Amino acid sequence: MTSYDTDIATDLTAALESVEEASRRAHDRLTKAERVAQMGFLDWNVKTNTIACSEGACRLFGIDPETLITPEQLLNLVHPADRELVETKLGSAARGSSEYDMDHRVVRPDGSVVWLQARGDLERDEQGAPASLIGTVVDITERKLIEEELLISHEEVQKQYTELEQLYENLPVGLCLVGRDFRFIRINKMLAEINGSPVDDHIGRTVREIIPELADRVERAYRQVLETGEPIIDLEVQGTTQADPETTRSWLVSYYPIESSDGTVSFVSTTVTDATERKKAEVLLKESEARFRMIYEYGPVMIDAYDSKGRCVMFNKECEKVFGWSAEEAYAMDDPLALFYPDPEIRRQIVETVTNKPRKVFREWKQTRKDGSEAVCLWANFKLPDGFVLNLGYDITERRQSEEDMRQLRSELLHTTRVLTMGEFTGALAHELNHPLGSILNNANAAKRVLEHEEPDLDEVREIVADIISEDKRASDVIQRLRDLMQKAEIELTSLAMNDVIEEVIGLMHSDLVIKNISLSKQLARRLPEVDGDRIQLQQVFLNLIINATDAMKESNKKHLHISTAKHAGGGVIICVKDSGSGFHEKEKDNVFEPFFTTKKEGMGMGLTISQTIIKALHGDIWVENNKEGGASIFVTLPAGEGN
Predict the structure, then answer these.
(1) Please, which residues have CB within 8 angstroms of residue 348's CB and are 6 or more apart in sequence?
(2) Contact indicator for 553, 581 with CB cutoff of 8 Å
(3) What confidence tens digit (pLDDT) does each residue in 489-519 have?
(4) What angle do CA 198, 199, 201 make, to 5 degrees?
């Protein structure tokens, strides 16, 4: 080789090294540019069906840069949802039909997903046949995430806007937007209905055209807001609209300024609420308050109230009248209950009643007046949620005194009736007493004769004295029963065995039945429940019933009286006094318990009336029935006592 050849070789080597260095630097710059731009290049050799990827492309796909891959392998990295799109686009471009430009997702081998923007075109060989597809891929993941967030944000804004639109249209409040020329720019259905015109008819028309009757007042408010920039809240407007020209209605209207970008007030937003019903309610409330004030001040009912600390906060004129204190004096009291109820036990009961019982309690209390006298009052106590107690009371002092007078009169009447009843069988009572008294006299004479002997038989005397004592006790029992029946004693409710009461009455009537030739049978059930009642009153009831039965049998050939007791279906006792007399006529059955009704010439007509009063007071019942075989039966039922 000549020196010339050597020089040429050296120059070529240097040039080649220079080219390689330039190529390397260009490759490095390209790689760096790909990394910075997050992009890569693809070269799909259509003839060999292989794809060469730049380092940037390999990095985006997550594959080895030294590896040649086939289109099928590359397609497998495409997200399944985008695979059909990519296959179609690349296939069309490979056939020379068009360029490709698309966004798709790639699932890297490590499972991460990136969005790529792929663009490319077909290169042909010298004969014009498809040779390769040259393309670029750019990482657009961040852009896509931003787009998705913007889309979601836009959808949310759109949703909120739609909801606001629906709210605007369907609010039960009238809404509108008016310009500086007083023309409607927007209005909702509620206000359109109030004005009496469709929504579309409002747009572009003036307030005066739509609501001429209200225009002066409304325009004046609009003008004030436009000039001052200050809102007007809850302005009351009254008048009529086309919706109901015959009825004057009331509205609460608020006006709010809306500024333009230059700071000037260009629009007025308006809210309208129909206050007609509220105004009516206010009138009714005022009328109701006036009525309550009249009742509070002048009604015959006491009204007072106390706060949670026990201080009086209400004290009407009726309270002043009954108690004697003025309202000012009651309000100034530190502890009004201590003055009204000096007894601490009563105060404790009142506090317990109001605190622990249901919200509304009716109780009767004795209260002390300012002058020291007592008043009996019936109170309804209402415990309010705020801790206050409202009391409604009525002075029943006179009523209770009248009831006490009536009770005494009833007691006198009962006693008089018993006296008259005893008069109807005085002969029988005399006979009842004559027998033991005669026996006592005979025994006394016999004892006298025995004692006159020189050596009296003391044993015989003892027997005679024992007989005298026995007969004396018998007479004493008769007198005691009469005394018990005749005395004016207070009513005393005790637990009684009805069979004992019946036996006591039969003992009193025994001689009378014998004298009147009336046979008696009785059927007294055993183990009857005891009843609560007053022994003397119940004796009087059955004494009346037996006397009435004996009187009803005066004209009867067969005179028989049957008395029975039994358990009642309701759990108490039923007593039947059955006679063989003439019975009752149908008209008489309805009237036998009426005061002063009698079928006897010498009767007062009070016996059965008093009997019914006594039985009803014990929550029992009394009625009469005619017997099929003749005569009548009087039935009495009494409930079982609390002791049962």
Answers:
(1) none
(2) yes
(3) 555 678 899 999 898 888 777 767 877 888 9
(4) 70
Distance in Å from the first CA to the final CA of the chain: 149
pLDDT tens-digit map of 258-282: 998 888 899 999 999 988 888 888 8
Q: What is the CATH number of domain 299-395?
A: 3.30.450.20
- In 477-589 the beta strands, taken as DSSP E runs, fall at 494-496, 519-524, 531-533, 560-567, 573-579
For 522-534, give one letter per residue: b (16+ CB within 10 A) or e.
eebeeebbbbbbb
- How far is Cα 377 from Cα 254, in angstroms, rounded to an integer? 54
Average confidence score pLDDT of the chain: 80
How far, in Å, CA of 614 to CA of 603, rounded?
Answer: 20
* Domain spanning 492-644, CATH architecture: 2-Layer Sandwich (3.30)
The Cα–Cα gap between 368 and 323 comes to: 7
3-state secondary structure of 509: helix
**Check whether domain 171-279 has CATH 3.20.20.300, yes or no:** no
Helix (H, G, I), strand (E, B) or coil at 553: coil
Rounded CA separation 292/306 (Å): 18
Alpha helices in 487-517, H assignment, sequence order: 498-515
User: Dihedral sign, CA of 155, 158, 164, 169?
Assistant: negative
Helix ranges (DSSP H) in 454-534: 458-486, 498-515
- Joined together, the tokens standing for residue 420 give 């008259």
Euclidean distance between CA atoms 354 and 356, whole angstroms: 6
Q: Catalogue the long-range contacts made by 333-337 (C-beta closer than 8 Å, 24 or more residues apart).
A: 335/310, 336/306, 336/310, 336/311, 336/312, 337/306, 337/310
Q: Is 405-490 CATH 1.10.287?
A: yes
Q: Under CATH, what is the fold of the domain 26-139?
A: Beta-Lactamase (3.30.450)
CB hemisphere CA count around 182 (13 angstroms)? 17
Distance between CA atoms of residues 133 and 123, nearest Å: 6
Select the more confidently predicted residue: 427 or 636.
Answer: 636
311 or 292, higher pLDDT: 311
69: left (phi over 0), alpha (psi -120 to 50) or beta: beta
To which H or E segment does residue 15 belong? Answer: helix 3-37
Instruction: Please determine whether the domains at 171-279 and 299-395 fall in the same fold group of CATH.
Output: yes
| Cα 98 to Cα 575: distance, rounded to the nearest angstrom | 119
| Residue that the structure tokens 């002058």 belong to | 371
What the block records as the tokens of 357 is: 């019982």
Q: Radius of gyration of the chain from Cα atoms?
A: 58
Residue 469: pLDDT over 70:
yes
Handedness of CA 264, 266, 267, 268 (dihedral sign): positive
Domain-wise residue ranges, the chain: 26-139, 171-279, 299-395, 405-490, 492-644
500/226 Cα distance (integer angstroms): 101
Distances (CA, A) of 362 to 292, 394, 464: 21, 11, 67
